[in-house]
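## retry 2 of 3
previous attempt timed out at serialization; input unchanged, resubmitting
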Amino acid sequence: MRAAAFAMAIICVVYNLLSAMQIFNDIYIKRACDSYFSMPVKRGTMYNAAFVYGVGVNACCFLLSTLFCAVSCYVNMYAGGKISADFSLFFANSFAVFAASTAALGVFILCAVSAGNKFQYIILCAIALFGFNFALNNSLTRFSYIWGMSFNYYKYTSISPLGNFISCINSKNISLLLVLSGISVIITLICYAAGYFVFNKRKAETAEISFSGAVPYILLFVLCAGVYMLLKIFYNFWILNLVGVILAGIAALIFSLVFFKKPFNKKCVQTYFASCIFSVIFLFIVYYPGYNSFISYVQEAQEIDIEPYNYYTQDISPIIYEYLSNDTSGVSVGWKITESESIEKFLNLHKKLVDKKTINKVKQKMSFSTGGINAKKL
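## retry succeeded, writing output
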């Protein structure tokens, strides 16, 4: 059943990508653009009709496929078949994926009314879909450089259209699916409002030549910021910024060549510098605590309260488990540390993790993230 929702989502996303371009096809052709905008219909009405049409097609596709799968499974279960299903989860998942597909439609329509031609439309869609997720991944993973901080960036990438779509497909939690659906609705409304504004302000002269509005420059800003923090192999703050400035400059150069047929457009340069300033400030905020704000305090054994240790041996490193228990066979249930010898070993492990030599050694070799060990409660 989840596979059916996934398949329908892919079909709808591909359809949305092609449909948004086809609906606004006339605004990409100079000869057709003047007559298109001179029709006795308000631009807002034309835009709303296109948006409602796209949402309606998606809704019908998901409704029919969802009902078909639900009825098929119910009949099979009633007839004594081997199929069993959680219908509440299935309907929540289908609705969340439908909402994510609608958000993708909103992104595509926004790109469609901003682009000057079909090629620009494809490029803007690629940046909008993958660029936001790319930038979020690269920026949020930088929090791992704060020693002792554990940061689950997969949850936060759900605010991007692609990240939200992936989370909706993979999630098996109804409450989370409802939250993701809410995020999709917010993305859809933002894209709808921005697209409505751009379409009303669009000039006929932009057809086949350039894009309209500030949306492409916002996407360029996101792309440059993501590229700025692309390479994770450099831990040194100054080297990372130097490489980031070069990579972001290359991205801005390519963007300007593709859209304006010249090395640098004035607004592209301004957007590039703005993204560099933002990236430097962001990296400084992240790196400064990593260098100066870590407190390497470890409690004494008598200060520790013994509590159940909720990890299973198959979920942690065999080396750590062997260090703690001198046993590599593993167990299938949770366990807690009670022996004084084990507590001492755990404290020694904690001391090694917070030792400056260990931190510096790891910093020199790789990007490394470790969650802080709560030695006061085990």
